[in-house]
From TrEMBL:
Protein name: Sulfotransferase domain-containing protein
Superkingdom of the organism of origin: Eukaryota
Binding of 3'-phosphoadenylyl sulfate, residues: R190, S198
Active site, renumbered: K100
Source organism: Skeletonema marinoi
Length: 404
């Protein structure tokens, strides 16, 4: 399989986080001049976002290089499984990705299962990459029902979904295993071109709105309960003309193909597209039986069977899992959340995601460039799927498809 020099695992993860922030500061000099004739309050808001975005985000035309430092590592010796005197809190599962691959849909539906406890106030806790210095007690408090369920006859299955966990450095994954060796891992794999395109549309929208650092990736930081309303709050401060202007600037049609290829080569998007490289680190520490790889297309084609599979992988008894899936109505199961294609609330249907895909099909040259760039990553991941015994594959953009 093809290897690319994207630095060490720790360095790639740091670049992933730092690039999220840097992406919010990318330069769009036209923003300030475009709203100069607008109302004073609205113009000030957009100009502020424009000023922030003009710093430190020169697009790279090369594959990402290594940095010289790495973030401090999570280390909780008192939580190691061989040292714990009691197991009041046992982390059962983690959803580790992929970004823009239906993880918000999965989070919302798993919340409805009485045997599963997820953070109620936000989806992405980012404890194992950003907030581990706050300590394990802080982490436990994110699970609202911990105190009342832990003492019951059957404690719930505690878990959370943070897509950036897929690119955690190996030493953090090793620490996770020391703490929770029975942890179940869930990874949803989406077509690499569609995933990257969706992520870049979201990024463009966020930077056009001038969101502050940490609000990238669905506006969730893991600390602010009200972050999901930031888009709506900012829009209400703008005139109708300014809102239309911002929508035009956040449209993919406002940027040339070269812009998106530069963003695709950025460390964040590149790293999150290399499924096999980062999943191999999880397989080094967790047995294959603990890691469930999901085909994103199942969310559309067979969502109930997918939910049943996930619930049972987490550890929910088969009968309870079936009752949970049966209790969901068709509207709940059929609804997805896709920040890249929604305009305000964040909710959209499958057809909205399809329209996002159609935007890319209208740019065949860009789509071909993205396929060429991402093809090695698709082939590497398909090799992993074959090795692990899965009977599905991602599109590797070849003329001749592999016969399973």
């Amino acid at each position: 399989s093809t290897e690319y020099a994207v630095g060490t695992l720790e360095e790639a993860h740091l670049r992933c986080i730092m690039s999220d922030f840097a992406s919010l500061l990318s330069s769009f000099k036209q923003d300030a001049s475009a709203v100069s004739a607008a109302s004073k309050s609205g113009a000030a808001l957009v100009a502020k976002g424009s000023k922030e975005r003009q710093q430190n985000n020169k697009p790279s035309r090369k594959r990402p290089l290594a940095t010289t430092s790495a973030p401090a590592s999570p280390h909780f010796p008192s939580m190691h499984s061989n040292k714990r005197k009691n197991a009041d809190f046992e982390l059962t599962f983690l959803g580790i990705g992929a970004q823009k691959a239906g993880t918000t849909w999965l989070h919302k539906l798993l919340q409805k299962c009485s045997d599963i406890s997820l953070p109620q106030e936000q989806k992405e806790v980012h404890f194992w990459d950003w907030h581990h210095r706050k300590g394990f007690e802080w982490y436990i408090r994110q699970f609202d029902f911990h105190s009342q369920k832990a003492s019951s006859a059957s404690a719930p299955h505690y878990g959370e979904i943070t897509p950036c966990y897929a690119v955690l450095p190996e030493h953090t994954i090793a620490e996770l295993y020391k703490c929770f060796p029975s942890l179940k891992i869930i990874f949803v794999a989406r077509d690499l071109v569609d995933r990257a395109w969706s992520a870049m549309i979201m990024e463009l929208r966020d930077q056009t709105m001038g969101l502050s650092a940490g609000e990238f990736a669905n506006g969730v930081t893991g600390t602010d309960k009200n972050n999901n309303s930031n888009h709506a709050n900012k829009r209400t401060k703008l005139s109708a003309a300014q809102q239309r202007r911002l929508e035009q600037q956040s449209s993919p049609s406002s940027q040339p193909d070269s812009y998106f290829m530069d963003r695709l080569r950025n460390a964040t998007h590149d790293s999150r597209s290399n499924y096999a490289k980062h999943l191999s680190n999880w397989y080094k520490h967790f047995p294959s039986s603990s890691i469930l790889l999901i085909d994103y297309r199942e969310i559309e084609s067979n969502p109930r069977d997918l939910l049943l599979k996930v619930a049972m992988h987490i550890g929910v008894e088969e009968e309870q899992a079936k009752q949970f899936v049966t209790s969901l109505n068709d509207k709940e199961v059929g609804q997805r959340v896709n920040a890249a294609t929604s305009s305000g609330s964040g909710a959209s249907t499958v057809s909205s995601s399809t329209s996002s895909h159609q935007l890319l099909t209208q740019r065949p040259m860009l789509k071909k460039q993205m396929e060429r760039y991402l093809q090695p990553y698709a082939r590497d991941f398909n090799d992993m799927l074959k090795t692990k015994g899965y009977d599905w594959r991602l599109d590797d953009f070849s003329l001749k498809k592999e016969i399973l």
